């Protein structure tokens, strides 16, 4: 199986109801180092209220701002885009199914190509919104080893061979005598990864080795090119419908009356998962560390050859994130934008981590990080295509990596220390 490893359906409509937050919680910063317990800074619901009373910061206001102005709108934007996928895929697939190459009907071919392009563009728009959300993997998206997140997008664990097999299992309608249900299939056969492979892969043969193809693909090469395109597009419709259902589940678990959004906004109240507001803030800051491992290390350093990759330790274009859609740099830009949204609270008028830093006499750290974010955005904007840049302008990719690293260095050190937060367990020993 071509597996590459690097680092419920809800029938009801989601009610986008976020109940009001409870009593406002003010706090003062603790001693300002990464090992400092998040329960120590002044917190009226479980922390020490000592410290400089003139230096208080409303941590509940920060949580409410990040939830209402950044995270919830991001999930809603993704849901909207995800729900546009099935109709776009079905319109394309209907034309693919009825198309007869032997007729050489140019008008029909043009309509088919346009419908496929529309479906591809819908995928790209959905992917951009998801890449914003990748900086907000918390609550339902981080639960159960990120099961829900991986059902939406499993990268960097992908298997195109698994997708090829499920094209045929779906067409067959059963697996080992049991009805085929895509919602019960593994994450590498579903989600945005599977849609990218089907929509943008121009190779009509399956991607499995002889030993991994299995009996289900034994007859694949005997089918005509058009038959194979139809089988793939029909499966793509099912994948898109499953993606829409998974997005509905995310919004329900996040924004429902008992959703995680309210858990964060009511942090520190009796019976809440978070005994203090700072511990809830720490969970959001943990999500920002996607910028360190997934973005800096997997998306940039690995294809650059700074870590071992599929080519050894040299530049390796096959290890970029989006090999079929060639959407790699767009994903990186969206990741940086997602980080920025969390950092500034969506915009300068809202409460964000930048305000928290100002309050903790760490405006210098805030300014360094804002400049770092701006520099990283400029560096990524200067790259048109990551694969081409890796081959022909490696320095531009190295520059982007360096600018992202400037931000993550601050994130892992001054940001954490000045706000008396704790590093995620996965980053505790990372000195890169």
What is the C-alpha radius of gyration, as a whole number of Å? 23 Å
Total individual domains = 2
Note the main sheet: 2 strands, antiparallel
The sequence of SSEs as H and E is EEEHHHHEHEEHHHHHHHHHH
- Low-confidence parts lasting 5 or more residues at pLDDT below 50? 1-53
Q: Give the distance, in angstroms, between the N- and C-terminal Cα atoms.
A: 33 Å
Report strand %. Answer: under 5%
Morphology call? globular
Helix content: 40-55%
* Number of H/I helices: 15
- Structural class of the secondary elements? mainly alpha
Number of strands: 6
User: Largest beta sheet: what is the strand line-up?
Assistant: 1-4
Mean pLDDT comes to 89
Q: Overview of this structure, please?
A:
There is one protein chain. This protein is globular. Residues 1-53 have low confidence and may be disordered. The protein folds into two domains: 72-255, no CATH class; 272-432, Up-down Bundle (A middle domain of Talin 1), CATH 1.20.1420.20. It has 432 residues and is mainly α. The longest helix is centred in the middle third of the chain and has 31 residues, at 225-255. 48% of the residues are buried. Helix content is 54%, strand content 3%. A two-stranded antiparallel ribbon has the order 1-4. Strands 2-3 form a two-stranded antiparallel sheet. It has a two-stranded antiparallel ribbon with strand order 5-6.
């Amino acid at each position: 199986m071509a597996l590459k490893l690097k680092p419920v359906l809800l029938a009801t409509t989601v009610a986008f109801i976020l109940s009001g937050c409870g009593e406002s919680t003010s706090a003062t910063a603790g001693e300002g180092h990464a090992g400092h317990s998040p329960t120590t800074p002044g917190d009226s619901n479980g922390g020490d209220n000592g410290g400089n009373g003139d230096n208080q910061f409303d941590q509940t206001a920060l949580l409410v701002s990040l939830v209402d102005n950044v995270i919830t709108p991001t999930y809603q934007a993704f849901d909207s885009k995800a729900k546009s996928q099935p109709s776009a895929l079905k319109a394309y697939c209907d034309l693919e199914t009825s198309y007869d190459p032997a007729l050489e009907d140019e008008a029909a071919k043009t309509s088919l190509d346009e419908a496929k392009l529309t479906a591809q563009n819908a995928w790209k728009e959905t992917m951009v919104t998801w890449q914003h959300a990748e900086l907000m993997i918390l609550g339902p998206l981080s639960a159960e080893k990120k099961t829900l997140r991986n059902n939406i997008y499993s990268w960097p664990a992908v298997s195109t061979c698994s997708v090829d097999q499920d094209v045929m299992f779906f067409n067959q309608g059963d697996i080992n005598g049991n009805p085929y249900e895509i919602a019960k299939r593994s994450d590498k056969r579903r989600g945005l990864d599977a849609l990218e492979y089907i929509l943008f892969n121009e190779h009509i043969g399956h991607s499995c080795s002889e030993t991994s193809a299995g009996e289900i693909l034994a007859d694949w090469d005997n089918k005509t090119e058009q038959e194979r395109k139809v089988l793939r597009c029909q499966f793509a419709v099912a994948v898109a419908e499953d993606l829409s259902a998974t997005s509905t589940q995310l919004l329900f678990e996040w924004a429902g009356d008992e959703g995680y959004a309210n858990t964060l906004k009511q942090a520190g109240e009796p019976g809440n998962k978070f005994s203090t507001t700072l511990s809830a803030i720490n969970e959001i800051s943990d999500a920002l560390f996607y910028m360190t491992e997934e973005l800096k290390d997997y998306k940039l350093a690995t294809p650059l050859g700074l870590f071992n990759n599929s080519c050894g330790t040299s530049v390796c274009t096959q290890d970029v994130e989006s090999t079929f859609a060639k959407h790699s740099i767009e994903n990186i830009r969206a990741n940086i934008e997602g980080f920025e949204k969390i950092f500034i609270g969506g915009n300068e008028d809202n409460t964000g981590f930048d305000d928290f830093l100002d309050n903790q006499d760490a405006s210098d750290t805030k300014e360094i990080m804002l400049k770092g974010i701006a520099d990283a955005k400029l560096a990524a904007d200067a790259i048109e295509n990551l694969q081409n840049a890796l081959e022909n302008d490696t320095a531009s990719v190295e520059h982007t990596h360096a600018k992202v690293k400037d931000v993550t260095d601050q994130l892992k050190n001054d940001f954490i220390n000045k706000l008396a937060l704790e590093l995620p367990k996965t980053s505790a020993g990372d000195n890169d």
